[in-house]
């Protein structure tokens, strides 16, 4: 039990009623939100980069197939 008397405890609660004493500080919340946003943006950029590499490989493969078929037809 708290060593504060019931009346003093009630006054303390009334004084701090509008304050955010139990949660995270505002700066920590902002840092957490920024970190999550940067993580999501990083994952999206990595996914787009991966898709670009896959598209480039498909394009190169299609070009090689095109030239192989073309050289086979002209013989």
How would you describe this protein?
The chain has a domain at 24-74. The radius of gyration is 32 Å and the shape is rod-shaped. The longest helix has 49 residues, at 26-74. The protein has two helices and no strands. Helix content is 79%, strand content 0%. It is mainly alpha-helical and 75 residues long.
Radius of gyration: 32 Å
**What are the low-pLDDT stretches, counting only 5+ consecutive residues below 50?**
none
C-alpha end-to-end distance? 96 Å
Number of strands: 0
Globally, the shape reads: rod-shaped
Q: Biggest sheet: strands, sense, closure? A: none
Overall mean pLDDT stands at 81
Helix content: over 70%
Task: Report the sheet-strand fraction.
Answer: under 5%
Listing every helix as H and every strand as E from the N terminus to the C terminus, the arrangement reads HH
Count of alpha and pi helical runs:
2
Instruction: Specify the structural class.
Output: mainly alpha
Features:
single chain, 75 residues, mainly alpha, rod-shaped
List the helices and strands and how they pair.
Layout: H1 6-15, H2 26-74
